[in-house]
Specification:
Blueprint (H helix, E strand, L loop, with lengths): L2 H19 L5 E2 L3 E2 L4 H5 L7 H19 L4 H20 L10 H4 L1 H24 L5 H25 L8
Antiparallel strand pairs: 1-2
Helix pairs in contact: 1-3, 3-4, 4-6, 6-7
């Protein structure tokens, strides 16, 4: 097993464990939820095969679903994020030819827009699946925005504190 695959496997376990055992308890005002594990998906190498990326998204989402008893909510949101990731990345960072998605390589603006877009899509799908009721549209929208901003803030803090070395999966 190559060292980069091993590194990403360890990262997978760490992000999933942090989400399940610690971050899932971080809730602001019963409104904003933090989905730190999405940071793992955002920072997978650009050259990761599209099908493999979706499978990895499904697996980390499934782990979170199993421990939070959410019946596929996070798995489906992660698969959608990983499906849309290359398209969002191309829109946001057209001139960026790097094979790595990180704040350090892409810059604050490009990485911020890239991650904010995908975190919003993830939060939107999670909230829509959980509520499944349009009668509380504005409350749900507020929860989506609050969760997006909370998650985005935590992801950017992690990016400032820990930037992984360039690796290929």
């Amino acid at each position: 097993m190559s060292s980069t695959v091993f590194t990403y496997l360890i990262s997978f376990v760490v992000y999933a464990a942090l989400q399940v055992f610690f971050v899932s308890n971080l809730v602001l005002f019963e409104l904003a939820f933090c989905y730190l594990y999405v940071a793992f998906l955002l920072t997978l190498p650009k050259e990761t095969d599209h099908s493999l990326a979706q499978a990895v998204g499904f697996l980390i989402g499934l782990v979170v679903d199993i421990f939070q008893n959410t019946w596929g909510t996070h798995a489906s949101a992660c698969v959608l994020v990983m499906f849309l990731r290359p398209y969002i990345a191309n829109l946001v960072a057209q001139r960026e030819r790097s094979q790595e998605f990180s704040r350090e390589v892409m810059g604050n603006g490009a990485f911020g827009l890239y991650s904010l877009s995908l975190i919003f899509i993830h939060s939107l799908l999670v909230v829509l699946i959980e509520t499944a009721d349009m009668s509380r549209f504005f409350a749900s929208l507020l929860r989506v925005v609050a969760s997006t901003l909370f998650t985005f803030t935590v992801v950017m803090i992690v990016q400032f504190l820990y930037v992984p070395k360039k690796a290929k999966l």
